[in-house]
Amino acid sequence: MSRTPRASRTAVLVCQGRAAADALIAPGRFADPTALPLLRPDEREAVQWVRDGVPPRTWQQRVDYETVRAAAELMAPRTIAIDEAVRAHPSPQLVILGAGLDGRAWRMPELAGVAVFEVDQPATQQDKRDRALLDAARALALPVRRATSLRHSRVMVADRP
After folding, report:
1. Which of 53, 81, 113, 120 is deepest in the core (most CB within 10 A)?
2. Reading across the β-sheet that carries 115-120, which strands appear in turn?
3. What confidence tens digit (pLDDT) does each residue in 97-136 have?
4. Are strands 93-97 and 144-150 parallel, antiparallel or unpaired?
């Protein structure tokens, strides 16, 4: 029985954190419009609770809320620092190790024309490709050109428009 590859829980949580923080934490310095489209509907629920600032009542939902809220508070400054480092050191190539559901190659105009290589576990990379291509109207509309094996991980090269 084949199993559909799924992104790691860490990849999803980091993406949820970026989606929850999008334009709310450090406005003007942090925005990630690519995060929410990469999440599945059930993964968006806790993001919306955090964005609304309304903690749910049940304990399991409250745990999800607090986890995503904490991730948002960490992901905004972390993403700002990485983006600033990428801007400070332009290069014709960028390798993102442990890329997860990162949308940097799509959201940073500074990376137009840069060959961006995303390295992560094969299941996470396959799930990211599936998520990005799932619904062309909702998705990022930025095609993934190819994935190439790199030992036990995969490299995904993101095309820029």
Report:
1. 120
2. 93-97, 115-120, 153-158, 144-150
3. 999 999 998 899 999 889 999 888 999 988 998 888 764 4
4. unpaired
- Amino acid (one-letter) located at 89: H
What length does the chain have?
161
| φ and ψ at residue 107, rounded to 5 degrees | -95, -15
Residue 148: which H helix or E strand, with range?
strand 144-150
Distance CA 127, CA 9 (A): 12
Radius of gyration of the chain (CA): 16
Give the phi and the psi of residue 144 in degrees, each rounded to 5. Answer: -90, 125
* Strand 115-120, strand 93-97: pairing: parallel
Global pTM exceeds 0.70:
yes
Question: Which residue shows structure tokens 């990005």?
Answer: 132
Q: What is the separation, in whole angstroms, between the first and last Cα of the chain?
A: 38
Residue with tokens 């406005």: 27
